[in-house]
Amino acid sequence: MGTAVYNGEVPTPSLTGFTLPITAAMGAFFGLIAGQSTGLGGLLGIAAGAVVGAIVAYILVTMVSYKTGRWGAIVAIGLIGFFVGGNLGLVVGLIAGALLGWCAYWLHLGKYRRSLPPYATSGQVLWHNSFKFICGAIFFFLIAPIITIIPLSFNAENFFTFTPEMLALDPAGYSLQHYRDFFTNDDWLRPMKNSLIIAPFATIISVSLGTLAAIGLSQSHVPFRRAIMAILISPMIVPLIISATGMFFFYSQMGLWMENTFGISKSLSGYIKVILAHAALGIPFVIITVTATLVGFDNSLTRAAANMGATPTTTFFKVQMPLILPGVISGALFAFITSFDEVVVVLFVGAAAQKTLPWQMFTGLREQISPTILAVATILVIFSILLLATVEILRRRSERLRGMSPA
Amino acid sequence: MKLTTTLLASTAMTLASSVAFADGHMANEMTIVSWGGAYSASQQAAYHDPYAANTGVTIVNDESSAEAVAKLRAMNEAGNVTWDVVDVVASDAIRLCDEGLALEIDVDTQLADGDDGSKASDDFGDLLVSDCFIPQIVYSTTAGYRTDLVGDTAPTTICAFFDTDMYPGKRSLEKRPINNMEWALLCDGVAKDDVYDVLETEEGQAQAFAKLDTIKDDVVWWSAGADTPQLLADGEVVMGTTYNGRLFSLIEEQKQPVAMLWDAQVFDLDGWIIPAGLSPEREARALDYIMFATDTQRLADQAKYISYGPARASSAPLVGKHATLGIDMAQHMPTDPANATNTFLYNYEWWADYRDDLDAKFQAWLAQ
């Protein structure tokens, strides 16, 4: 068994010296989690997990074929999990079974070095796989906190807690009450409406001004380009709390002036103030993305257009704009998200009538830890994913239509 | 291009009209600042909704009471006060009144008489601690414990917090010296009447910190009223202090295995102030709201939604049953005789003098 049998071009690694210990280590890791969560203790869990891992690896690689082995491991460990930990144990067991089975075959069949050339040394193989593992871990730690809130938002209770019913996957532990609360409660609907008023207006202003600024700043004859650029980018660099304090005093006076001069109401002037403040925060993003696309813009196109009698305005809309549109759109997206997520500036500049969703979530977290916040967060996460996906699909489509394929 | 233009134009039109729509709705509105959560909900049901129905005023809730003093100062400096009525604790009201940021109220002419015919000044009595402050509720900072995590003998005194042998596990205390220093001294053998005299001296303060030191590793410090209920519901702490209404909601509404430990509860007052510097129309409306919201019936109504005691003596007999649970509310009031067998009297004036100093010392102690 321990002898090297050539399987294609990859030698089968030693069972007792390689496959068994590594699978056992993986089993020990699952055992540690299981032991801690069932209260059996971490050490007992590690020991039991290591034994189970080694047994699984041994049975799979010596006795059964690949397909049967994978399914067999899933079912067997799933059942063990079910008897130890009920419904939740079943789910965890199924996952652990799938991973242990995969691990055993991945090692035994030499799949771990499939993507490497045959002459790679053991050190290179180890580094290649460690690197993959580190990448996976980074991905996990980025995503896990966001994923955790999704099941919690279906909590039947009013706390940020996985209740015993939820852990047992009992339907009684789950409910849609927090989503219902969000869609019926005026405390949430009003901020939602405010966010949907403020963010698009702030986006329109930052996109128009930011695009114009980027085009101007990319012309070589503009004086003090770097200084102007630095000033326009500064809202992104200056700590937000400092911008917010300055904006509070500046816009308070401006609001009073607008109310006295134009006779507009306090709430309208409040919206204008927040929209302008958010537009200032969004402009740097638009400038940066549009400047980046302008780098690849061929200026002979505008000269050609002028040569054919087009006015600068026509040239801009017919020639330049379509080419820099991807940059404008991604800048707009950043500006929108900046305004939609912003809580510090609106806390200072806005009055309660302009309360936005992040503001409501912020006070909600402080004063009343209600899972409605998690329901809102879940909705916003899905909304952001849809928004980004749509823009990306549209961008690819337009590039395909114009015969450019994404790199 | 034409399509894009049309789309953009129509989007802009929709947005503009939605702002105009929102604007039309908010023309006759007032901003009321409060604490949020179940407390704001009780004010909404007992005061805001009936007032809005009577007058057609739209009430906007701002949950900024926690930073009311700082924000009012900033608004005053900027010359643009956007709040109409603000709910603050008594000590904040005293500070705001001293700084001239709150309007002085003539209680007998600007507030309603009691239903029993008593003058407002008699009806509120001792609770009128400042010229600007219109008391609304009496609440207490008190403790609760997990019934399933404290073993066979349930705690009966506040000193259970300092007894980690009998009650192992974490406990949550507020991240400020007020109350904690007093409780530490009480549990270190200082008589109730001597607490503030002892706390005035350096040795007394050291004694209190030494007592707190014995449990420092077991304390989770909270800063928002919602923290302790969450920690208790999680089972992360075995006992914790918070406002009594939060514990009521945790026990009676959320049905968590938690019980009240009323021992050495500290009473405090919460009420309204009207910011100074409002335009005459806004000030008149704020006063009209206050007149309505602090009459005998309205104060008694609030107790239907949250277990805080009404500030008027004439409201007490009108306290009835909880609006949705149907349980008798009187026995859940911090002022109920059964709950108030051992209460601690919080000394406003003493804390006004020593707060800054002890806050600094407390923060330094926390950081050690």
Question: What do you see in this structure?
Answer:
The complex is a heterodimer of chains A (407) and B (368). With 407 residues, chain A is an all-alpha fold. Chain A folds into two domains: 6-114, no CATH class; 185-370, MetI-like fold (Orthogonal Bundle). Chain A is 77% helix and 1% strand. In chain A, strands 1-2 form a two-stranded antiparallel sheet. In chain A, a hairpin with a 2-residue loop joins strand 1 (6-7) and strand 2 (10-11). The two termini of chain A are 48 Å apart. The model of chain A is unreliable at 1-8 (pLDDT under 50). Chain B folds into two domains: 25-138 and 269-328, D-Maltodextrin-Binding Protein, domain 2 (3-Layer(aba) Sandwich), CATH 3.40.190; 145-266 and 340-367, 3-Layer(aba) Sandwich (D-Maltodextrin-Binding Protein, domain 2). Chain B has helices at residues 2-25, 37-55, 68-78, 90-98, 107-110, 120-124, 180-186, 195-199, 202-213, 227-234, 244-253, 280-293, 296-302, 348-367, and strands at 29-33, 58-62, 85-89, 134-146, 171-174, 219-222, 239-243, 258-273, 309-310, 343-344. In chain B, strands 1, 2, 3, 4, 5, 6, 7, 8, 9 and 10 form a ten-stranded mixed beta sheet that branches. In chain B, helix 2 packs antiparallel against helix 13 and helix 7 (180-186) crosses helix 9 (202-213). In chain B, strand 1 (29-33), helix 2 (37-55) and strand 2 form a beta-alpha-beta unit. At the A-B interface, helix 7, helix 9, helix 10 and helix 14 of A face helix 1, strand 1, helix 2, strand 2 and helix 3 of B.
